[in-house]
Write a structure and sequence with these properties.
Distance between the termini: 49 Å
Oligomer: single chain
Number of strands: 17
Number of domains: 2
Radius of gyration: 21 Å
Largest sheet: 7 strands, mixed
Shape: elongated
Helix content: 25-40%
Structural class: alpha/beta
Strand content: 25-35%
Length: about 300
């Protein structure tokens, strides 16, 4: 493999080699960086993620797959881990050149003959069975090490459901587990854009009624006339708040449901989904409003 790219740099931010293979788990159709062979890549460009464990894992994997002497460009916004990139890479035994521009820090280096500490960083960021959650998870996945408070409230209030349904933005499958506890559920399609979450959910949802899809909820085909939809809609896209993303989930849920079908969702209190719910559904009711979250039941 000639070159790999992790993430999607803004236009003009960094030079991306022609034909570079995308390896970010958030890009549909990308290659899995973790399964690439050692010392098999000629060049790497990494837009490093913000989380420390996830960032160290990605950088260690990139160094692992690079050939000795091959160049690595790693960069990130200054306020999202960029200021710590050089120290992290030096900890792997790299000699690092650094520059700053456009509110980012850029680290340039050649992969050393024998990097240090890669195995430890890879082990720390790898998928694991969480004793606290009782499920498979991985650093970098949404709420990877704890039950998200909003999802927890929805799980608490969700009644037993029945028939065919979908979990939009399923994460590692904690909400789906609650849905599948109802014997009357016959099918549950779970969709998430994060390949890591999907891989974990497939471990966690060992149930013949469940199908887990790596995909963008806004572009998933083949679902229609569902009896129910459950979801904790995301409202960040690329780290920036995007309320239209949650609105899109509401509109898609309505399209997927049969007449009379039910949608249960949880959202942060400050997100104004009520107008979209009123437009897309026959009726809706707020079942909980407190602790920073609102749980809503809507009927198609």
């Amino acid at each position: 493999m000639t070159a790999i790219l992790y993430g999607v740099p803004a236009p003009g931010l960094a030079e991306v080699p022609a034909g570079a293979v995308q390896v970010s788990p958030l890009i549909l159709g990308s290659q899995d960086l973790a399964v690439l062979a050692d010392a098999s890549v000629d060049r790497a460009v990494v837009l490093a993620p913000g989380g420390a464990i996830e960032r160290d894992y990605v950088l260690a994997q990139a160094l692992r797959v690079l050939k000795p002497g091959a160049p690595l460009l790693a960069f990130a916004p200054k306020d999202k881990g960029g200021s710590r990139l050089k120290k992290t890479l030096e900890g792997f035994g790299c000699r690092v050149g650094e520059d700053a521009r456009k509110h980012h820090r850029f680290c340039h280096l050649a992969r050393p003959e024998a990097p240090t500490g890669l195995a430890e960083a890879i082990a720390a960021g790898a998928p694991r069975l969480s004793p606290a959650l009782g499920v498979w998870t991985q650093p970098g996945v949404f709420s990877w090490d704890r039950l998200d408070a909003g999802s927890g409230k929805l799980i608490e209030l969700l009644p037993p459901l029945a028939g065919r349904g979908a979990d939009l933005g399923c994460g590692v499958g904690l909400l789906a587990q609650r849905v599948l506890a109802a014997p009357a559920v016959t099918e549950l399609t779970c969709v998430d854009v994060d390949r890591r979450a999907v891989d974990c959910a497939r471990h966690n949802l060992d149930d013949p009624r469940a199908t887990v899809i790596w995909g963008d909820v806004r572009r998933v085909d083949g679902l229609a006339d569902l009896d129910f939809v459950v979801m904790n809609p995301p409202f960040h896209d690329g780290g920036t708040e995007d309320r239209n993303l949650g609105v899109a989930f509401v509109e898609i849920a309505a399209r997927l449901l049969r007449k009379g079908g039910i949608c249960w969702l949880v959202a942060n209190r400050h997100l104004p989904y009520e107008a979209s719910l009123a437009s897309a559904f026959t009726a809706f009711e707020v079942r909980h409003d407190g602790g920073g979250y609102k749980v809503i039941e809507a009927r198609r």
